[in-house]
Amino acid sequence: MPIDPSPAIPPDTPLSKLPNFDPREVPVVGVDAHLPPVPPAQLRPDALRLRFARPPAWEQELRSEPRFTDRQPAHAAVLVPIVMRERPMVLLTERAVRMTTHSGQVAFPGGKRDDTDLGPADTALREAHEEIGLDRGLAEVLGDLPTYTTGTMFIVTPVIALVQPDYRLALNALEVADAFEVPLDFLMDPANHRRHIIEFSGTRREWFSMPYAEAGKERFIWGATAGMLRNFYRFLAA
What we know:
Elements: E1 2-3, E2 28-31, H1 45-53, E3 74-83, E4 89-95, E5 106-107, E6 110-112, H2 120-132, E7 139-144, E8 148-149, E9 154-163, E10 176-183, H3 184-187, E11 194-200, E12 203-209, E13 212-214, E14 217-219, H4 223-237
Parallel strand pairs: 1-11, 3-9
Antiparallel strand pairs: 2-11, 3-4, 3-6, 4-5, 4-10, 7-9, 8-9, 11-12, 13-14
């Protein structure tokens, strides 16, 4: 799907900033149904604890996006909260439309590292509490995944944590429009991983999406969030 941009729009513009751009309308060029899903038994809390305690040899699939800005790189962390229900769930957010980056998109709670943070886990837990009111005492950090660099030059460390199912949230309306859960087994099944390609001003851009529909509402997971989930799949499937 080529896009003919206005001359006023530079070629390094983030896709989400293009006028009238909707990632849902970009054609799907492939679905990875040929890859095996992670077995449900490997998604249980004890199995996840063991996987991080004894990590396998594996290769990160996605490392970075095309650079969209001249700003200096900044370190950040996101929390990947796995809610310990009978069917494990991943807690995600929808960013407020007023946000300057990735507005309205599905994301993990998280943000830029503060100088007082002790490490990525501290950043992720602090930001999750500030954004959605998640009590860090209800989160058991299992470990980190390799960094993922966004086009806006955030070097993001995904922090995987188990979360007690009796959590209570208090959303920061300035940053978060909604919070919801998606089944972990859905996200760890490549049959739900769709590939997209777009050409913009002579540049080819590719990404994954993992649309999830519940009660008639679609949650369109794509971009950096889908990329980090894809890496998580590679880690668990190794």
